[in-house]
Design goal:
The chain has 4 helices and 11 strands, in the order ββαβββαββαβββαβ. The protein has 156 residues and is an alpha+beta fold. It folds into 2 domains: 75 residues, SH3 type barrels, CATH 2.30.30; 67 residues, Ferrous iron transport protein A (FeoA) (SH3 type barrels, Roll), CATH 2.30.30.90. The model has no long low-confidence stretch (mean pLDDT 87).
Amino acid sequence: MVVRPLSMLVPPEKGRIIKVGGKGGIRHRLLDMGVVTGAVVEVQRVAPLGDPVQIRVKGYDLALRKEEAVNIQVELIESRLARVPSGERVIVLALGAGWGLQRRLADLGLTPGVEVKVISSGRPGQVVLDVRGSRLALGRGVASKIMVRAVGVGGR
């Protein structure tokens, strides 16, 4: 289980809210707008300087200031493969690449629905995976095009 502040997520990552921090009126306003524990939140866009962050929660879009998003703790549900820490087991959801790269990855056994283990995601460097009993090293650019979710975590 990877827990991060909402401000650290990038589009199109999804997470489940586990804690809404903050003080006073801002916290109450967030709770009134549906930013509550257990709600699934998807990052839609982030402004060029990181403020504000546009999210989708309970079917509607909401823009939050960075200082508000920092106080919201999120358990990651869907992420890019390049951002998954070492030792995590994930399931491939989608390959956001052209047909040539999709075909090459499929030939290597990396297809939607397959479970993989991230052996190493050291920065800088390659992302090393265990795919169907074989080791596979991907560059960060390729790994950032692959959407995954943690094993045992419900999505939508």
